[in-house]
Design brief:
Number of strands: 10
Bound molecules: phenylalanine
Number of helices: 11
Structural class: alpha+beta
Largest sheet: 7 strands, mixed
CATH topology of the largest domain: BirA Bifunctional Protein, domain 2
Helix content: 40-55%
CATH class of the largest domain: Alpha Beta
Order of helices and strands: HHHHHEEHEEHEEHEEEHEHH
CATH architecture of the largest domain: 2-Layer Sandwich
CATH superfamily of the largest domain: Bira Bifunctional Protein, Domain 2
Strand content: 15-25%
Strand order of the largest sheet: 1-5-6-10-9-8-7
C-alpha cells in the first residue's frame, strides 16, 4: 500500500505541473484532495492493516495528504499572482515610438553650402572618388616631383589610380565635359593619408567651385565668396583674402572669416588671430586651361575649395573632427529637426 501512496503523490505532482488555469487547478484538487479523491479510500483500507504496518503507512499517508494540500495552496497563489500581473495594464502610458532619424551634420552643412551656390546660378556636378593620378595631380599642374604632393599623400590603388585627395580633379572633368561659360559646385568625399586626430581625418569632405567665362577676375571671386560667407555664417562676418599658393591657381588665396566669438579681436577659440581659415581659392592657372584645351588668352575663371568638416566645426562649435565619424547617437541626435 505504501507503494500505491507514493505513486499517488507522483501522479499528483505530474498533473499539478500541467496546471495553467483555475479550472485545471480545481480539477486536480478534486481528484487528489477532496472527498471524492482516493484519500478516504486509503484511510478506509488503513484499518484493515496489522497494527505495526498501520502506524507506518498511516504516518506516510498523513504526510502526503498535508503535502498535497500545501502544494495546491502554492499553485493557487501562483495563479493569483499571474492574474494580477496580467490585469495591470497602465492605459496612460505613452505608446512606443520609433526613434526619429536626423541628418548627419556634414550632410546638413554640405546641403546648405550647395543651396547657397545654386541660388547664385551654380549647377551641381560630381566626380568619382577613385581618380586617376593624371586628373588628381598632373592636369592640375602638380607634377610628380612637386612638393605640393607631399601635403596630399594619397591611398594609391596601382595602375595610375588613387583615392582623390581633393575635389579639384572634378574641375578637369567638368572643363572637358562642358562648354564655357559655366558655374559649377562640386560636393564630394576625399581621402588623404593623414593621422586620425582632433583636426585630421583620412576621410573628409570638400565642396569645390569653378566659374569659367571670358573676363572673370579676382573681383568676381571676392564678391562671390563674400556673399557666400555672409549667407552661411551671418551678415556680421568679415571676409579676408590672404595671398597663398596652389599650383592650379594664379594668383592664389587663402580665405578667412572673422571669428564669430570675438568678432575679429582675437580670442582662445581662434588662437588669438581673430580670423578662421575656410577655403583655398584663386584664378584658374593658364596651364590648367591649356591642359584641357582651352585658350587662356580667351577664357578666364576662378576656383575655390573648402573643407566641409572644418566649416561644420566652426558653424556648430564642434571641437573634434572625429565626432563626425564615431556614430555616437547622442551626438548625432543633437541635429534632429535640422535640414
Ligand atoms: N584643392 C585645394 C585643397 O584641397 C583647395 C583649392 C581648390 C584651392 C580650388 C584653390 C582652388 O587644398
Amino acid at each position: 500500500m505504501i507503494e500505491e501512496i507514493e505513486e499517488y503523490l507522483r501522479d499528483f505532482e505530474g498533473e499539478l505541473a500541467q496546471v495553467l488555469t483555475r479550472d485545471d487547478l480545481n480539477r486536480v484538487k478534486g481528484k487528489y484532495a477532496g472527498r471524492k479523491s482516493r484519500i478516504p479510500l486509503f484511510l478506509e483500507r488503513l484499518k484493515t492493516l496489522p497494527l505495526e504496518e498501520r502506524r507506518v503507512v498511516g504516518r506516510r499517508l498523513n504526510e502526503v495528504k498535508v503535502l498535497i494540500e500545501e502544494r495546491l495552496r502554492e499553485k493557487e497563489a501562483e495563479l493569483s499572482r499571474k492574474e494580477r500581473k496580467r490585469e495591470f495594464v497602465d492605459l496612460s502610458l505613452p505608446g512606443r515610438r520609433h526613434p526619429l532619424g536626423a541628418f548627419h551634420p556634414l550632410r546638413l552643412v554640405m546641403d546648405e553650402i550647395v543651396a547657397i551656390f545654386r541660388s547664385l546660378g551654380f549647377r551641381v556636378e560630381e566626380g568619382p572618388e577613385i581618380e586617376t593620378e593624371l586628373y588628381n595631380f598632373e592636369a592640375l599642374n602638380i607634377p610628380a616631383d612637386h612638393p605640393a604632393r607631399d601635403a596630399q599623400d594619397s591611398f594609391y590603388l596601382g595602375g595610375g589610380f588613387l583615392l582623390r585627395t581633393h575635389t579639384s580633379p572634378v574641375q578637369i572633368r567638368v572643363m572637358k565635359k562642358l562648354t564655357p561659360p559655366f558655374r559649377v559646385i562640386v560636393p564630394g568625399r576625399c581621402y588623404r593619408r593623414d593621422a586620425f586626430d582632433a583636426t585630421h581625418s583620412p576621410v573628409f569632405h570638400q565642396v569645390e567651385g569653378l566659374v569659367v567665362a571670358p573676363g572673370i577676375s579676382m573681383g568676381d571671386l571676392k564678391g562671390t565668396i563674400e556673399v557666400f560667407a555672409r549667407r552661411l555664417f551671418g551678415e556680421k562676418r568679415k571676409v579676408r583674402f590672404r595671398p597663398s599658393y596652389f599650383p592650379f591657381t594664379e594668383p592664389s588665396a587663402e580665405v578667412d572669416i572673422s571669428c564669430g566669438i570675438c568678432q575679429g579681436a582675437g580670442c582662445r577659440s581662434c588662437g588669438g588671430q581673430g580670423w578662421l581659415e575656410i577655403m583655398g581659392a584663386g584664378l584658374v592657372h593658364p596651364q590648367v586651361f591649356r591642359n584641357v584645351g582651352y585658350d587662356p588668352e580667351k577664357i578666364q575663371g576662378f576656383a575655390f575649395g573648402m573643407g566641409v568638416e572644418r566649416i561644420a566645426m566652426l558653424k556648430f562649435g564642434i571641437p573634434d573632427i572625429r565626432w563626425f565619424f564615431e556614430n555616437d547617437v547622442a551626438f548625432l541626435s543633437a541635429f534632429k529637426g535640422l535640414g
